[in-house]
């Protein structure tokens, strides 16, 4: 495979950075324990499995009976032996969104395999699609680099029940694909090269993303196809099973909303006292619950014992809210801090894999796990990679540039790189040439005029001709330098578009499918082989060579 897969540091808020560096100030905010120690997972597994009457395993068997292949076999083992899950998740971005979606999934898959061996229990990777999110503008597009190395945005419209003007923020779960999905697929195909893999890569994507299909369901289908050999359980946060088994937890969150707010505000203060800013600000009176009302998904606010929606200002009594939960559980959903708690209530989760922002807000979620008596999973960082194609490696090697030198403002970075590579000795040598020639000509002029005072005119024209020749030489050399710099500038701009598109890290911007078209689905296995988890850190090993 003519591609280099580079591990890169995961950057984010100071709290997640401290957690990844095993800073004791940060680890105190995560109750399950350090992710590099096997004991953290073992203790949690024992706690999760302690209740022999827990009905979740039996319900999982009934709910997901239609799985096939590796996923069916792994779920069967989890149900039979009361196994566990390693969870991760993401919003339902167009064509699976940016590359890090895959990196999250493969980190969960690798950690699940490791824990299965080390704990002696079936452990299955779980990918939870945040289909109740309502920020359509975050998921309705993706970016690719075209054949001319330009960053191109692909975007689709939406179709959902009701009037878009009166319901501007519906959950993604309710949005269906329009006819323009065919044009988006055609554009993706047009922007990628014709290769031996193109048909086998894009045909399943076309089968997943088709007009009138649910946007989140399309994401689930496409991701399930790519992860089919890793035995994933894929679900959506709006899945009827999840809504049913978490209904009472959501009701408890409403009933205990004051205590929930107090705990979160206390945690906010503890984080600040340790030098960290909370990832999610806590607004007094705003609950961790949302309800789909007249203006779409809307946060529930406390209103003198009743529930009031923030944007639409619709008001509901406690009895009305309870009736909605009973009859229309799909209308009530958790906020970002409560969502990990509902996931762990629905599935026996021993570890959760997240990015830097998720790691940071999970420090706040811990108090909600405690409030609802749900064991908080071990928090694990996703892997972070940069895919460097041969054409980009060649440019970097040619100019002796490190990839990170192109981060941020690529234009300014490239100008600085060019300035640093302009040979100062060339300008110095040309200046010295003018100086030496001028001095020599003055000597010639003095000697010639002593011999023949009438030679002044001829000397003047001769001197001008010599300096014009030097000027022409200087112009040619400077033109050559500019030409060389222009080539360097153009090639580095192309490299920056591939590595830091629009000034952002590749994994946070670029779509996976152009890479799959070029290198085939074997790329997924190649990335998986490069994934490292905290349990790969041999410095944490005990006397037997295994992580503690």
Topology:
Elements: E1 3-7, H1 14-20, H2 24-27, H3 38-48, H4 56-63, H5 69-81, E2 84-90, H6 100-119, E3 123-129, H7 136-139, E4 141-145, E5 151-155, H8 180-190, H9 198-208, H10 215-226, E6 233-236, H11 240-255, H12 257-273, E7 286-293, E8 296-303, E9 306-309, E10 315-316, H13 318-327, E11 332-334, H14 339-346, E12 349-354, H15 356-371, E13 378-381, E14 385-389, H16 390-399, H17 410-420, H18 424-451, H19 456-499, H20 513-519, H21 522-530
Parallel strand pairs: 2-3, 2-12, 3-6, 12-13
Antiparallel strand pairs: 1-14, 4-5, 7-8, 7-11, 8-9, 9-10
Notes on the structure:
Helices cover 51% and strands 13% of the residues. The protein has 548 residues and is α/β, with parallel strands linked by helices. It has three domains: 3-135 and 234-386 and 508-537, no CATH class; 136-230, no CATH class; 409-499, no CATH class. A five-stranded parallel beta sheet has the order 6-3-2-12-13. Strands 10-9-8-7-11 form a five-stranded antiparallel beta sheet. Helix 15 (356-371) links the parallel strand 12 and strand 13 (378-381). The longest helix has 44 residues, at 456-499. It is elongated and about 120 Å long.
The percent range for helix content is 40-55%
* Beta strand count: 14
Largest sheet composition: 5 strands, parallel
Q: What's the number of domains?
A: 3
Keywords:
548 residues, alpha/beta, 3 domains, five-stranded antiparallel β-sheet, elongated, five-stranded parallel β-sheet
Concise account of the structure shown:
The protein has 548 residues and is of the alpha/beta class. The protein is built from 21 helices and 14 strands. The two termini are 36 Å apart.
